[in-house]
Amino acid sequence: MPTMTAAQRREQARVEYDAFLRSCPTNQLLGRLSDKWVGLAVAALSTGSLRYSDLARKLAGISPKMLTQTLRALERDGLVTRTVTPSVPVRVDYALTPLGTGLADLLKAVKRWAETHFDEVREARERYDADSDTDGTAAVPADR
Amino acid sequence: MPTMTAAQRREQARVEYDAFLRSCPTNQLLGRLSDKWVGLAVAALSTGSLRYSDLARKLAGISPKMLTQTLRALERDGLVTRTVTPSVPVRVDYALTPLGTGLADLLKAVKRWAETHFDEVREARERYDADSDTDGTAAVPADR
DNA sequence: CGGCATCCACCGTGATACTG
DNA sequence: CAGTATCACGGTGGATGCCG
């Protein structure tokens, strides 16, 4: 007999897989893109440098905390530069680096795909939801 | 004077922006991609059709619940097909649709970018972390 | 103006157990 | 084999309040 229960083996597999996923560049990047605000911030900066408060206005619903957090993460990854002008009051500008521009291009590709094929996705959803309705099962509650 | 406090105005902006974001195809797609397992599942299926249990094995650490949830979401969006063969025992196959293949291609582009530029990101991170250390501030605790 | 620390609420995620 | 239902936990994002 094995020295582990099935649950223990799955647990171990999970831990290993998690480690694997964390070290995978693709997944790390995906993680970054999925950070709710990163995509928006990059898009906002893709047309040129912006001040902190300009960004706060462009990304209407964001909280100061998340804006800072997002920008710090992007800065750490070398995707944006942070320029402090020690005037009174202080002025901080953010701009994309060449690397960040590359990310913006990637984002544009995603955007293009999304806009091109979104009708198909919408149709598929409606079909799926309609079928689910008729057979009485609730399935997925409309959206996440 | 305004009839709302600053907090109330931000709150309203947040709600409106949320609605805007939800209706934005790009963001919806980004949301999908960010679902921890979607990328992996699509990658796994990109080489051909697989059974439920095969997927469970390929995505080592996934729980049955998340696997089903992920597959259902993809099916709803018309990205994968679900084929039930009513034998004993039951057999269920999942495969990418043409639309899903398109998504897989997109994912490959992301992967390519990630692998090409990840060194730069890593360097940037090390530089950033080193600088933060020397000036005594803790800043970002290594990663998210 | 720009930023950080603290506290808190929510929900996505996973474990567990049960069904056809 | 292929799920579904229920529960519990932890991380993430938001609100608030204080510094430079």
From TrEMBL, chains A, B:
Molecular function as annotated in GO: DNA binding
UniProt entry keywords in alphabetical sequence: DNA-binding, Transcription, Transcription regulation
Q: Which domain of life is it from?
A: Bacteria
Which is one Pfam family of this protein?
A: HxlR
Ranges for the HTH hxlR-type domain? 24-122
Listed name of the protein? Transcriptional regulator
